[in-house]
Design goal:
This protein has 279 residues and is mainly α. It is built from 7 helices and no strands.
């Protein structure tokens, strides 16, 4: 049983390492599309093929896999223990046969399915035969799978950035070529220049018309406000003329203001003369 388990584990690990090597080779090929001197505006067939192979290798498993049987619980009876061990041995051999048939019928299985098979095979072993080395190997395979998935996302983003930059540069080059072609034809260049100047003049005229319309609107608003203030003044004067004694009161207030102004002016002049005198 231990030899059969070791054989199944070795086969799965060998195939996992082979797929990891194949993935690294595809990464090397896929990364060359980002460092190419001229990147096409759309992905080529070769790029799509390599990316598809990487996705097939790194995608999550979707098919149901055979589950290795678990050992039957032991009883106090010796005959039951012997029968359980025999049943466990036969079921383990059946699981190994299923693994062998899986490896033979699936030439390029997904890497996650292989990691799952390794995990299930390790779980099916007893605590005596399983070792810390196998646990470390299984953890290492999982870490490499996660690293390769992150590497695929990084290279895909890098190729998208390079392609976008190349498309931008190609657009700039096309504009430069169009400008140079216009310079080679002076009549067409002069006609385009005159059309551009005419467009600028039309825009200036439209702007001036807009400013003039706003000025006319402001002037009209000022006229309305002047008429409103004149109407308010007329109403105040009319109300003051109808109230008895209001005109005399307003006259006395004005005379008092003039008197106060004269007194204040005389005091300031006296102070100024005194300053000049004592100086």
């Amino acid at each position: 049983m231990a030899a059969s388990t070791g054989t199944g584990w070795a086969q799965l690990r060998q195939q996992a390492r082979s797929l990891e090597t194949q993935t690294e080779t595809l990464f090397h090929t896929y990364s060359q599309f980002a460092s190419a001197p001229s990147v096409p505006p759309k992905p080529t067939e070769e790029e799509q093929r390599v990316e598809g192979q990487l996705q097939d290798l790194l995608q999550k498993a979707r098919q149901a896999r055979p589950t290795p049987p678990r050992p039957c619980p032991s009883n106090n009876n010796s005959s039951s223990s012997i029968h359980s061990s025999q049943s466990y041995t036969s079921s383990t051999n059946s699981a190994h046969r299923n693994l062998s048939s899986f490896l033979t019928t699936h030439n390029t299985p997904q890497r996650e399915s292989l990691v799952s098979q390794l995990s299930r095979l390790l779980d099916s072993e007893s605590s005596l035969t399983s070792s810390a080395l196998k646990q470390n190997n299984l953890s290492r395979h999982r870490e490499i799978l996660l690293d390769h998935r992150r590497e695929l996302s990084r290279i895909r983003s890098l190729i998208s950035e390079v392609r976008a930059r190349a498309n931008l540069l190609s657009n700039v080059r096309s504009d430069i070529n169009a400008y140079r072609s216009n310079n080679n034809n002076p009549e067409a260049a002069e006609a385009d220049y005159m059309l551009d100047e005419r467009g600028r003049i039309d825009n200036s005229h439209n702007m001036v018309d807009s400013v003039l319309s706003q000025a006319y609107a402001v002037n009209e608003n000022f006229g309305l406000q002047r008429e409103t203030l004149a109407s308010i003044n007329r109403r105040i004067v009319g109300a003051a003329s109808h109230v008895p004694g209001i005109n005399s009161l307003i006259g006395r207030i004005g005379a008092k203001k003039r008197r106060d102004g004269v007194i204040l002016g005389g005091f300031i002049a006296f102070c100024f003369l005194m300053v000049l005198y004592f100086r």
